[in-house]
Amino acid sequence: MRKKILSALFTFLLFSNVVLAKPNLSDTSAVKVAVLLPMHLDSLFKYGQYRYKNTIPKFALPGLEFYSGVQMAVDALNSEGVNARVEVVDLYKFGALNTLYSFSNPNMPNLVIGVVQNAPELRQVSDKAKEFQIPFISASYPNDGGITNNPFLYITNSTLNVHVKSVAEKVKENSNAKTVVVFVRNGNRDARIQSFLDAAAKDMKKFEFKYVNLTDSFTVNSISQHLDSTNVNYVVGGSLDSRFGARIVKALSSVSASYTTRIFGMPTWDDQDFTKAEYKGVEVVYTTPFVSYTLNPQLYNTLNAEYKKVANSRPSDMFFRGYELTYRYVKNLAANKEKFVNKINEKDYKVFADFNFQPVSNGENKIDFYENDKVYFILKADGVFKSIL
């Protein structure tokens, strides 16, 4: 694994970018795609020497995993004869962004796919996308970063509003109750979640949410007094703090013999390990825009096996995200070069998930950005994946 990754790093070091797919120079019909990744080469290397011996710092892993997925996707596209030029650019290499977005660049991309790691980076790249009128597909958190009036930004990682609205709709669909309990942290620290839930409830007839404020030292009784022993309880964990969410699940587990409960959490809850005995007996549901292991199991298993051959380990979600977004949108662009933005939601090129980009408006008839409003519900019982709802 280390040798493979370090080899990729040295390649990036020697060249400001890596061209993974390069059609004949005389072929002007080929589409051009750039993939911006946070490779951190200026931090990883000093005077051409790798600084971390045989280890890989955590801050470099997302870019490396995504890069591996891009590589494998390009191999698949090449085998299918897709006419495209795909280059990978280190977002953190000095001057790389200005070199890419330049009218003197003979390989100005038709599309940019990227992984950014904070709101300023998202704004910097999306501003370039708007200036040069080149669609930018953002593959990671942060979501919108407060960006407005930029119809060239496409966000795959759905904003909190989409997640919460989807939770509200799914809870109403599952529960026969007219009022559903939402456990929130005391102090209004997750006020946005409450506002989004209330907005969603307004569009539903005879349905509302009841908020139960919990202190940091809440007791099991603070939870159980709101449960019904005669029915399945559908409740919402209204906090982005996954550790706080885990404490709620632990409390629900302690009374699971008397109360059957399914709790709908936030997308941040996916980083919690609910396999421990203290969480057993509770069904936990959370949302995500990215799924791979169930919607195309044959491809998932093939990619898993191929990755293991070269890396001797299991790939991360970022690997599958790199594969999925590269394969899907490079192929889509190659087939619909002039009409790409109008056909960006075409399902003919679907890999794992459905991405459904819809315009988000600021109320002034201007598009702030396009957002993927499709999320999936992952159901886990005793920490083990059960199904997609």
UniProtKB/TrEMBL annotation:
This is ABC transporter substrate-binding protein. The keyword Lipid metabolism does not apply. Keywords: Signal. The lineage of its organism: Bacteria, Pseudomonadati, Bacteroidota, Chitinophagia, Chitinophagales. Residues 1-21 form the signal peptide. InterPro entries: BCAA_transport (IPR051010), Peripla_BP_I (IPR028082). It comes from Polluticaenibacter yanchengensis.
